[in-house]
Amino acid sequence: MRSNVIETVLGAVVLVVAAFFLYFAYTTANVRAVSGYALQARFASTGGLTAGNDVRISGVKVGSVTKAYLDPKTYQAVIEMQIDSQVKLPEDTSAGIASESLLGGKYLNLQPGGEEEMLKPGGRIQYTQSAVNLEDLLGRFIFSAGGSNANKGGDASQGQQPAAQQPPAQQPKADPSKGLLNGGGK
Asked: Residue 135: what pLDDT?
């Protein structure tokens, strides 16, 4: 009977500690939905940006992505977002999709411009930059590095001239009066 009471108390302590950790993680992770005004941006590629991802300015969360879909007429990705009502964005604000790390995790990075007029709720960010595809960049780098080494010696079949022969370097002459090469050293 005594072991049942100890097990019950220990189980209650574990549940309280787990609830504390969940509360702590929720309050510090900034996963709450941002209430504010809606904006829209169009991209050629989202690179994995989905609803729920952060919208940041200078690394600070100011909103969240609410919806991502394809426009059937233009075949562009449309990103809808909610921006904190305290943050007013100029009309020439630009949006770019960025990665949190090499392992993934995307967010929408906003860079406010200097325009006097502000974006209105439901407005559209005109200046966008699509996500950079890391696999494409690595492939281009690997193939460009491999191709440049192959042509260093010159390839006559492709119309390139072989490199001109350099004259052999002259050897220093011995000066018998000083016992050293070219009189240096003292």
From this structure: 78
